[in-house]
Sequence to fold (69 residues):
Amino acid sequence: MKKSLKIFLPIAAGFLFFATSCKKCEECHYDGPNGEVELGELCEEELEDAEQNGYAVNDTIYEVHCHEH
Fold:
């Protein structure tokens, strides 16, 4: 029992580390003149840029809304 526990614990700890160190990605959209427009999943720098600067369509910049997925 102790031998299998010595093997299982490092594997579980490694899995937990990799599962929590994933990229931050979220599903995003903006509210256009004809309703909600899905942008899909944005990650890391692309996500930060969209949230800070919005999404430009022609000469109009729309506020981007994201929720963690």
In short: The longest strand covers residues 35-43. The CA atoms of residues 6 and 12 lie 11 Å apart.
